[in-house]
Amino acid sequence: MLLKSIVFCLSLVFSVSQLSAAEITQRPDLAPRLAQLKPLYPGKGSAGSVVNELQGTIFLISGVIEKGDLEKLKAALDGTWGKFIVFDSPGGSFLEGIRIGQYLQYNVGSQDPDLNGVFVLNGNECLSACALAFTLAATPRNAVYGGDIRFLEAGAALGYHMAFLPEEKANQLVAVKEAMNLAYEVTQTYVKLIKGGIAPSILLQEALSHRTADSFFYLAGGIRSYAMGLTPVSAGTIADPINKSALYMDTVGAMCTQLFQADNSIRKSEVEYEFGAIDGSGPNPQETKLEDLIQELGSRRIAASHNGVAYCTVELSEDGTVGMRITSGSLPCAKGGYDAPTWCAMPGPFDDTLPKVTNALLADAASCHGGTLTTEYAYWTSDVIDYDIGEETPTALTDWNSWERTIARDVNVRQNPSLDAEAVGRVQIGDKVKISDCRIVSGPQGVWYQLSTGGWISARFVSEFDQFTRPATEETMIGR
């Protein structure tokens, strides 16, 4: 089936004669923008800027990638130390894109690397050959020890697809042979990414599903981008650390499970995808605040298990922000059997600070991915297994209850999504409400729902959180 897909999906991707050739220029004006970018998900850096010190030269690669562009890039980089590369390209020559990516990968993997980051920024695109060049800028060392430098800003367009053979050349034997060789080269590049742990196997499967010049598997700096091993970033409110205000353990557990599902460094079977939620008995997560449980257990760090495969550690800092980390293995502080409490205190002392949870992860758990109400979903399980039972299955799922939700705790309805806004009503525990929109805003609540009857409530006060599904696509995030 793979060979069949390759043979019928071969390509040069673009008719580059109508597009401008790639330009490689120095762009010091981008320094303030890069300096403001912060990681969106725990485990991909700290809460600070992804670029600690902008010491070096910023280069922009724009336009169509053509044969000879690697030599142009080498010449441009020559004599500089400390490099930041921003991509904005519709693609072009797959082979040249792969060569550029391999050159960047060699720099990253060398004993004295000076490539500090590759970026695709909101408002820019990096498609086809460009996407491979960008994705190759990592080594297995990054996959094992961290330190990924492939930064995808929320709203940017990173697009993958396979090579294809233009119809006008379908009957030309030489063209078919050349295109097949190209397709093998492209597929081999994806396989190398998978073999090195730089990208999951689902990336190749998704790319194989897009077989024409204008069809792409898009990543846009959301949680699916994180699951592909990249580092989503933003300078906006979506990157703000969440606050402990009205943060209950049902919300915390949902964020842990979303992060666990998306973390491709944790080896999971379909069992863990299906039953990987936080497990244990008590206390009631809808009635227990994080800060109260932290105080009760006597440690600023607590942890809970994901079906014995991994555990989620949560930290409450003095400034009210929350840190989180997913770690492979059994829960180190567990005491007792299946009836043991869900959360246990991690023993100190602690010499580090956990990566901060941001509004991005809270929004994912609230099905407000990227600040947009999610209308089409896919199970995380589909990233590892598809059951072919001879029936046509939908490519995307719709909301299970047409966005009707249950109120978990009494809360005021506000005229606008802010605690400073006028209270225009109140809903009580057990009430059913219909959600019509959502928004990520600055402030202690972070994510808000708009009710179909008017007014807004904090998303932290509903009882249903998203743990086992993800957005069917990140394409809706592009340009936001």
Enter the CATH topology name of the largest domain.
2-enoyl-CoA Hydratase, Chain A, domain 1
Radius of gyration: 23 Å
How would you characterize the largest beta sheet?
7 strands, mixed
Structural class: alpha+beta
The number of helical runs is 13
Shape: globular
Structure characterization notes:
- The protein is of the alpha+beta class.
- It has helices at residues 2-8, 31-36, 69-77, 94-109, 129-135, 140-145, 173-195, 202-208, 223-227, 249-262, 270-275, 290-297, 359-365, and strands at 23-26, 38-39, 57-62, 83-88, 115-120, 125-127, 150-153, 157-160, 217-219, 231-234, 301-306, 310-316, 322-328, 344-345, 377-379, 404-406, 411-414, 423-427, 432-440, 447-451, 456-458, 469-471.
- It folds into three domains: 2-238, 2-enoyl-CoA Hydratase, Chain A, domain 1 (Alpha-Beta Complex), CATH 3.90.226.10; 241-357, no CATH class; 372-477, SH3 Domains (SH3 type barrels), CATH 2.30.30.40.
- It is built from 13 helices and 22 strands.
- The strands form six sheets. Strands 1-3-4-5-7-10-2 form a seven-stranded mixed β-sheet.
- Strand 12 (310-316) and strand 13 (322-328) form a beta hairpin.
